[in-house]
Design a protein that fits this description.
Length: about 350
């Protein structure tokens, strides 16, 4: 809806040709009428919309894995990809970036952190960048409660900064979301994970930073509003006017930064482990997380069971090379089947 807002405020700059949703058919059809676009609803709506339409940019904002096939199809058609679904990069980063290079297709990051990095890197050569620093709000459980095992669904869904869907809100609270963003940054900017750092920054004003080999650090700052990043993805390399107010620096009392607590947030470690294992391990990680978050939302496992389910699954995973979309989907199926058996 944020993306629709951006388009609505720039009617002369953008045209929506097609909209696809899995559910919410009525809302989709109303928007399609408003923008004179085609509406696609149902299980394969996104893939069908990509196959039957042409556009400069395809905005992918699905939940989890379901964005992979439509993204690959859009790349094959030469559309630039404005990517909001980080699981696509997490699970199949190697595949989709290789395919994009082959087709001369660009990724335009929509996530606020990756947009920040994209804006800071702006044209620098790869050997000028020494590292990336992703900021994290820390979510609702940064310091309390001390015992996370009794956290309820309602508590976990109450994110202090961003209003998002349930999966990404839970992922933010466990910091798995930040881990996914590390992997996403690795593929988007071709920087090894060892050179990607995470710092907790509860004010969510600095959206991420890039450090350069000469000792300079650039940061991108703006009030926390997803529409800034979405608009930049759609207007890059230009900037268009928006109604959003610029930051009032003197009005901010302070900006704070600290290291994430590795004991409270084991998911950050699991992500780096998956990356070390290589192949489809990251796909197993993401699929296990999707399963575990749903199991938590359904009341089948406790909050702390999310990280332990992911770890169990990762430990049990055989080596799986990641050479095709099929291999990624197979790893996804394997992880879900393994967790279903164990529960
Ligand atoms: Mg983010």
């Amino acid at each position: 809806m944020n993306a629709v807002d951006v388009v609505r405020s720039h009617p002369d700059d953008f045209k929506i040709v097609a909209l696809a949703v899995r559910s919410s058919r009525e809302r989709c059809e109303a928007l399609a009428r408003e923008f004179g676009a085609k509406a696609y609803c149902g299980e394969n709506a996104a893939l069908q919309a990509v196959e039957e339409n042409d556009a400069d940019i395809c905005l992918v904002a699905t939940v989890g894995m379901s964005g992979l096939r439509p993204t690959m199809a859009a790349i094959a058609k030469g559309m630039d990809i404005a990517l909001a679904t980080k699981e696509v990069m997490v699970m199949a980063g190697e595949l989709v970036t290789a395919e994009a290079r082959r087709r001369g297709v660009r990724f335009l990051p929509v996530d606020s952190e990756h947009s920040a990095i994209f804006q800071c890197i702006a044209g620098s050569a790869a050997d000028e960048v020494s590292g990336l620093v992703l900021t994290a709000s820390g979510g609702p459980f940064l310091d309390e409660p001390e015992d996370l095992s009794s956290v309820t669904v309602a508590q976990a869904l109450n994110h202090p900064r961003w209003k998002m869907g349930p999966k990404v809100t839970i992922d933010s609270s466990t910091m798995m979301n930040k881990g996914f963003e590390v992997l996403e940054a690795r593929w988007l900017f071709d920087v090894p994970v060892e050179r990607i750092d995470v710092v907790v920054h509860p004010e969510s004003i600095v959206h991420s930073l890039v450090t350069f080999v000469d000792g300079a650090t650039l940061a991108q700052l703006s009030p926390p509003d997803m529409r800034v990043a979405i608009q930049y993805a759609l207007t890059w390399p230009r900037r268009l006017r928006s109604e959003r107010a610029a930051l009032d620096l003197a009005g901010l009392s302070r900006l704070t930064f600290r290291r994430p607590d590795p004991v409270r947030f084991p998911c950050l470690r699991l992500v780096r482990e998956a990356m070390k294992r290589g192949g489809c391990a990251a796909a197993v990680l993401a699929a296990a997380d999707e399963w575990a978050v749903q199991a938590f939302l359904d009341g089948r496992i406790p909050y702390t069971g999310i990280a332990s389910a992911v770890e169990r699954c990762l430990d049990a995973a055989p080596e799986m090379p990641c050479a095709s979309v099929e291999a990624v989907l197979e790893a996804d199926r394997w992880a879900r089947a393994t967790l279903n058996q164990g529960s």
